[in-house]
């Protein structure tokens, strides 16, 4: 509970910096990054509180600015939609309605819906339902997370007492469950039909980050202060479970990332430590993590490292949601550069399997020869 | 814990033996019974809280608490609880009789006045006033002290040594009773004005207990604030008119006024903090118990219900989802069925499989055909209605252009007929409301179901439920507007006022006409400007929740059919579905481009009173787009093989490229 009290004393900027998925949120030029779920389009939130939207098919780069758009902590594109972007700001959630055919570089602030609720700020995490109908928002100071019906701007508070606010949200790709991390040593998994939850206490610290397997049956999460990745499996989702989250009793360790010596092209290097953020690609076959204080993300099961330019540290990572030939990892570096790293592979089952049916890779398998890519 | 006990209760009607066509009384009956039971069970808790708070004595806390607990078991408290349970049951019956899943939206202040003086509303108000009086009587009995009796013996004056003690009127008691009546009436009035009979369906599914717990803080806050307002209003009313009931009671019951006490209809009399506190507290108590009954009914009635897709036994055919969707059950049942369709299409692969299955002998996809047919007909109904509204709007715009001189134009198109006398083109060219006929006096409630769906049986405030209603309206109207055009309001005036005094209930239409004439004559500015285009648009979309669910259910089913439909039953209807959705999309787009249509939802404050019907059209627009994207995202390039018109093909391509 100490951390809860601490979090209340922090200023909201410190709080966002502490809970953001960006490694150095306060100092880095790129504060948040979001791929569009269906097209080659992404949004980048910058240090000056503006957001740029890049599109592979268009040379215009709209720049979004709004009076209320301050201290952007997270962004998310609405699924099953052309161009609606939700932005977690200091005091509210902004929902930008961008015209995908427009050539304007400065959409007016009239294009943004303001979703605010007293006591619900700063907003540090957002998650859209994969079916595109609801938006979740969370704040570390609000014990309730909000389920928004964005079109009508109405919200329902999902209150659960104990553990302080909610710092990080992750909706499972199949839409059945939501991970909600708190500032204390406990996290919850909500079942997204009747909205009941199960809570898991962690031993050491708060849950720092987490990600879901494509079929929503497995949750990987990391805990502040530990350099391991835990896995929590859930009973297969059969629909209309009537309020059963169905998680297994205990989480198992699937990967130990403590410091080890690796042979690299540049000689021996010691790599390892706490995980700051973690993403799982949509086919379920590659996992990328940022290790705190290290320059390299890492990819089990065929572990490999990505090295940036000299002195550049990774800030944010994200997988392209629909890269046809394998997986496309996007890394935002502390230098302000964004690099896309493609992985070409054929899926374990079939190359174009429905994303919901992709297999869960066996994690923690024997380390093979480390792959190494350099930019 | 204890709350879950209601669950097994419901199990009865889901599993018991049923006679055909009995699904609605069973579903609703159990829900109503459970809601009433819980509100009656919660009454003693509220009463205990009231007794403790009414005996508030911060200087002697121990004595206060022990006294309060002693009071709880006294016979008169138990009698009061019994009496108030009766009140709660009556209030619940009114909730049940008046509920509506489609709100009736008055399109102007005048229509609202018409609603208020409607006989059914008058009965509602009257009964609520009586009930309010009963509750405050119980409150005075439980509070004890100086408020308890209506007649008390007068303070003996020093000079006269009368042998016979005179009985005097206890004005505090009278004040309390009247405040109860006032609160009850105000509650009834606000119930009407805020459309509290509207049953909004929640945006997410939650257990009943959690929903109740979530609303409880709001309910308490709302009751406290509203009681404060009502009591303030009552004090003002009593200050001006309090002497009338006082004198009347004194004369009929032969009571005296006590000269020693301050009369309450003076400033100094009303500035009594204890009196104010107790009035407010009993107001909070009254509103809370009533709102709890209302809230519980809402929660129970809108809970999702699991309809089977295929009958297990032959006699259960009537309870199946396809059958219910295609028959004409009470609107609430239809809503529940569509909600269930949305849920199963989204969450239940097993039940989706049943939808896609073929009938055993014969091999026909009866389930899918029935479900998709009903959804499509709902959606095309909405399309028709919107087209009619847009045509009317276009006509109205054309009509609005002529210069100032032309004041009363006879209705040209059916759509704008009924309200046209209200809206003078010269005064408000833009605000001429195209769909205002919808909530207008003569759109008769065509679907007036027994279970109370918008059961205001007036000929004037049915919400629109089908395009037929719109077309029916103007016929009635023309006569009235003709009359006005002949300049006959002055003639009709006395006749109508006579009618008003005599047969108010029988001839509401005349009063309405009279009101309109009145309006024509004197209060153009105030009332005309209050005739709001926003309200009429709300009225057009008032049942859009059905269409939203139909869209969601249909699109989820179609998307799921890509992998789950073994027999290809969905393929056959895919062109029709795409056609309907794309046409609706065009029409909705056009609707939002109409001049006076706002493109953003109004702010909704998080209050107890749900106004979600005001924003249904935005939800409809969003779910329509999402539904189309859901289909195009799953089918992708395969959609090029589906036969649709070239125009729709273009539109589909836009969706495939994420450019809509």
UniProtKB/TrEMBL annotation, chain A:
Residue span, Aladin seven-bladed propeller domain: 12-343
Annotated InterPro entries: Aladin (IPR045139), Beta-prop_Aladin (IPR057403), WD40/YVTN_repeat-like_dom_sf (IPR015943), WD40_repeat_dom_sf (IPR036322), WD40_rpt (IPR001680)
Pfam families, sorted: Beta-prop_Aladin (PF25460)
GO cellular component, one term: nuclear pore
SUPFAM superfamilies noted in UniProt: WD40 repeat-like
GO BP terms in the entry: nucleocytoplasmic transport
Gene3D superfamilies: YVTN repeat-like/Quinoprotein amine dehydrogenase
Protein name: Aladin WD repeat nucleoporin
UniProt source species: Cyanistes caeruleus
Source organism phylogeny: Eukaryota, Metazoa, Chordata, Craniata, Vertebrata
TrEMBL record, chain B:
Subcellular location: Nucleus membrane; Nucleus, Nuclear pore complex
Record's keyword terms, sorted: Membrane, mRNA transport, Nuclear pore complex, Nucleus, Protein transport, Translocation, Transmembrane, Transmembrane helix, Transport
InterPro entries membership: Nucleoporin_prot_Ndc1/Nup
GO terms assigned for molecular function: protein-macromolecule adaptor activity
Entry's Gene Ontology cellular component terms: nuclear membrane; nuclear pore transmembrane ring
Superkingdom: Eukaryota
Membrane spanning residue stretches: 32-56, 76-102, 122-142, 174-193, 275-297
Keyword Membrane: yes
GO terms for biological process, alphabetical: mRNA transport; nuclear pore organization; protein transport
Region Disordered: start-end pairs: 397-420
Record membrane topology: Multi-pass membrane protein
PANTHER family noted in UniProt: NUCLEOPORIN NDC1
Function description: Component of the nuclear pore complex (NPC), which plays a key role in de novo assembly and insertion of NPC in the nuclear envelope. Required for NPC and nuclear envelope assembly, possibly by forming a link between the nuclear envelope membrane and soluble nucleoporins, thereby anchoring the NPC in the membrane.
Similarity annotation: Belongs to the NDC1 family.
Protein's UniProt name: Nucleoporin NDC1
Species in which this protein is naturally found: Cyanistes caeruleus
Lineage: Eukaryota, Metazoa, Chordata, Craniata, Vertebrata
Protein's gene: NDC1
